[in-house]
Amino acid sequence: MRRAPELPDADFERWRQLLEMRAGMVLDDRQRSFLQIQLAARMRELEIADYDSYYQVVCAGIGGRIEWVRLLDRLTIQATRFFRHPPSFALLEAYVSEFARTTEGNGLTLWSLGCASGEEAFSMAISTAEALSRQPRPLTFALTGTDISSEALRQARQGTYSLQRLAGVPASLRERYFRTHADGSFEVTAGLAERLCFARLNVLELGQAPLQGLNVIFCQNLLIYFRRWLRRDLLNQLVQRLAPGGLLVLGVGEVSNWSHPQLVPVDHPEVLAFTRQVSPPA
Ligand SMILES: C[S@@+](CC[C@H](N)C(=O)[O-])C[C@H]1O[C@@H](n2cnc3c(N)ncnc32)[C@H](O)[C@@H]1O
Fold this sequence. Notes:
Number of helices: 10
Bound molecules: S-adenosylmethionine
Number of domains: 2
Low-confidence stretches: none
Largest sheet: 7 strands, mixed
């Protein structure tokens, strides 16, 4: 493998600023070699010799926008897995059961923000479907997964995973919600998949998302890439997207000392979550 050319200080600074301005992601000095390797790999594919020329390409017009989307697939960290933080999904299941028992509506809407290749969204869907399957009256749900990475979304829409990637899914759920392909991979059943849709969304452009009145929002392992003030700003916007009584689940430790007048913290030792008050404070 050819070594990536050294990323000069001035170029590192420029790329770092672009990434933060356009995607909110903050790179520190420890991630410099990661940035260098990813930029150089893409430059090799495009036969571009230096970082400055590639920067000009990414910043130029429509073509630059398209190239930026390609580059983001390389620069975003899409590490994820099914039922990544099991207590969050247990909380979701309990919330959905309670919702079904106490609410007259006939369905729920859910949002997985920064859904990567779909594992979080499908885990939410499975937990919700399980809770609803135990209810005496029929209820349905719709779930939207959004992410900035188009490659991650392509995989999510495909909904097909290797046995290894299904490691967090108990065998009984695997049998109920996946069908096996001849090559040994597992595809989400049509009955579950039809409840989900995936769309590209940069959280810095939350205003463009038409989602409102959500019963559940999961935003896990996304805010960690952003500055503190931005995390709080995004969370304040998400509160406005929740229905009264709605549940917001975050990654543990992703925000500290944050509160919102319309939110009540969920008292849970292992999950960072809030519910929106049913009636606004007087
Ligand atoms: C580490 S993954 C977390 C996936 C999943 N939520 C989980 O907890 O397993 C972070 C995801 O956030 C996405 N992401 C990063 N910056 C983003 C932005 N500005 N807008 C939307 N998604 C973003 C990445 O593409 C990536 O898929």
